[in-house]
Design goal:
It is a multi-pass membrane protein. This is NADH-quinone oxidoreductase subunit A. InterPro entries: NAD(P)H_OxRDtase_bac/plastid, NADH_UbQ/plastoQ_OxRdtase_su3, NDAH_ubi_oxred_su3_sf. Its main location: membrane. Belongs to the complex I subunit 3 family. This protein has 119 residues and is mainly alpha-helical. It has one domain: Methane Monooxygenase Hydroxylase, Chain G, domain 1. The chain contains four helices and no strands. α3 packs antiparallel against α4. The longest helix is centred in the last third of the chain and has 29 residues. It is flat and about 65 Å long. It starts with a helix and ends in a 6-residue tail after the last helix.
């Protein structure tokens, strides 16, 4: 066997033994802190949560998040297309025109359905 293979196997098995031993030692001998303040819920600077945890949210929030993701992914697809537009030529340009028209059709449908009306 080569020296590199022996060395890498010794390092691998050494780490496979040392890491669990260190974790076990810290679990046994490490400091433990607990109490009311540590176990209390902390939510974005609010110490005491107001309301029920299972309160209902409007579906409009979820729809808006999905729409944001759809149009955000559109922007992600447009960056590499814009970088390689010269190599793609007219065919690549027409493909992106079709892609944008499909998304525009979806946006018009969403606007006609009134999804973005918050009344």
């Amino acid at each position: 066997m080569s020296a590199e293979l022996v060395l890498s196997s010794v390092i691998f098995f050494g780490l496979a033994v040392i890491i669990p031993v260190i974790m076990l030692l810290t679990a046994v001998f490490g400091p433990r802190s607990g109490g009311v303040a540590k176990n209390d819920a902390y939510e974005s600077g609010i110490k005491h949560v107001v309301g029920m945890a299972d309160q209902k949210f409007s579906v409009k929030f979820y729809l808006l998040a999905i729409l944001f993701l759809i149009f955000d992914i559109e922007a992600v697809f447009m960056y590499p297309w814009a970088v390689s537009l010269r190599e793609l030529g007219m065919f690549g340009f027409l493909e992106m025109v079709v892609f944008i028209l499909l998304l525009l059709t979806g946006l018009i449908y969403i606007l006609k359905k009134g999804v973005l009306n918050w009344r």
